[in-house]
Write a structure and sequence with these properties.
34% of the residues lie in helices and 14% in strands. The chain contains eleven helices and ten strands. Helix 3 packs antiparallel against helix 4, helix 4 packs antiparallel against helix 7 and helix 5 packs antiparallel against helix 6. The chain starts with 23 loop residues before the first strand and ends in a 26-residue tail after the last helix.
Length: 379
């Protein structure tokens, strides 16, 4: 190992190399050697082996451009769940109001009158079919009930008296200025009475004696159903055309006014009287036929070679109306197929009677001859 020269200048550069390396290629182009090129000499002056630099490493191939990726689909908006509505909080029930002062006790006759006035009576609506109007009615009072019951007991066989008592009751119950049931139809009167019965008697028992076995049955009436059926039973006026030989009759038929029925009952029961139940039953059957005649409101007669004739029966008295009907051919009035009375029964009174309950005897099974609470109870 040689000794170092102590007199050597540490800053003296080493001598240049004895031979020059081959020119190097940069991107295929020869480049001359430059000894001052700091890129060829490291920091301490050592020469980089030229042989290793004579063939430079090939330039790396350019990286392919990255493929353009499709943008990721935007995330779907997330459904925002609506918060559940809070359960309704029931309103607190109002506390019953306490009277500010204790009830005042009334005494004496004047106090009684004041108490009766304050008591009053409940009101409810009722529809009148003939005029398509609604009126208010009051409830029956105990006095009303006593008066009607007493009239029925004393005059059980006098339909005219009972009929007038019912009309007076209706007039007193309807709260309309100038109201007079006699100017409305018989159908309106029956509906009003049924509504009064519903309001006051719907809980009462109906006792019915079976005509076949003689046993007594007890029924309860559903006046709600009866009133619904009565609404369906309403019928507007009809015109029946009936031929009689070479003549043609046009009968206008409809529900008669109450005043027409009142006049009929008054005249009929003055004309006929009965001394026993059998005769009275026959009279009642005859009166039913006469009752149906009251439905005839007008007649038109057309004869060959003559002008047509017409007559309005609404303003005729019972006697005049009966005189006219008695002059007609019997077949026009009572024929089982085409008679005007047959048609009145089919179109007017049968639908009315079917509105009332028909029951079977609980003992023998026989059906009631007429509806419980039928039209007979309102005439």
């Amino acid at each position: 190992m040689s000794e170092e020269n102590p007199n050597k200048n540490p800053w003296e550069f080493p001598p240049p190399p004895k031979h020059l390396p081959e020119p190097r290629l940069v991107n295929g182009i020869p480049i001359s050697y430059d000894p001052t090129d700091t890129d060829e000499t490291d920091a301490i002056g050592k020469v980089i082996d030229s042989e290793t630099e004579s063939t430079p490493a090939p330039a790396p191939a350019p990286k392919p451009a990255p493929k353009r990726q499709k943008p990721a689909p935007a995330p779907k908006p997330r459904a925002v769940e609506k918060p559940a509505a809070p359960a309704p909080v029931p309103a607190p029930e109002p506390e019953p109001q306490k009277p500010s002062a204790p009830a005042k006790t009334l005494t004496g006759v004047a106090a009684l009158s004041k108490f009766k006035q304050a008591l009053g009576a409940g009101l409810f609506p009722i529809k009148l079919f003939s005029t398509d109007e609604s009126v208010m009615m009051r409830e029956l009072t105990v006095t009303d009930q006593k008066t009607l019951s007493k009239t029925a007991l004393v005059n059980g066989s006098r339909r005219d008296v009972i009929f007038n008592a019912q009309c007076a009751l209706v007039n007193s119950c309807v709260k309309k200025d100038g109201f007079d049931i006699s100017e409305y139809t018989e159908f309106d009167r029956i509906v009003i009475l049924a509504r009064l019965y519903q309001q006051n008697y719907f809980d009462n028992d109906i006792h019915y004696t079976c005509p076949k076995c003689g046993k007594e049955n007890v029924y309860k009436l559903d006046f709600g159903k009866i009133l619904n059926k009565l609404e369906d039973a309403w019928t507007e006026d009809k015109v029946y055309v009936i031929n009689n030989g070479d003549r043609e009759f046009h009968f206008t038929v409809g529900w008669p006014k109450v005043k027409t029925i009142a006049d009929f009952y008054a005249k009929y029961y003055k004309t006929y009287s009965a001394s026993n139940e059998k005769v009275q039953s026959t009279i009642d059957q005859l009166s039913n036929v006469e009752y149906l005649v009251m439905f005839i409101k007008g007649i038109e007669l057309f004869s060959p070679g003559a002008d047509g004739l017409s007559i309005d029966l609404n303003d005729l008295t019972y006697a005049d109306r009966t005189d006219l009907i008695d002059s007609l051919p019997q077949g026009l009035v009572f024929d089982d197929d085409k008679g005007v009375i047959t048609r009145v029964i089919a179109d007017f009174t049968d639908p009315l009677n079917k509105a009332f309950q028909y029951e079977k005897c609980a003992y023998c099974g026989a059906e009631t001859e007429e509806g419980i609470g039928s039209i007979a109870d309102f005439t």
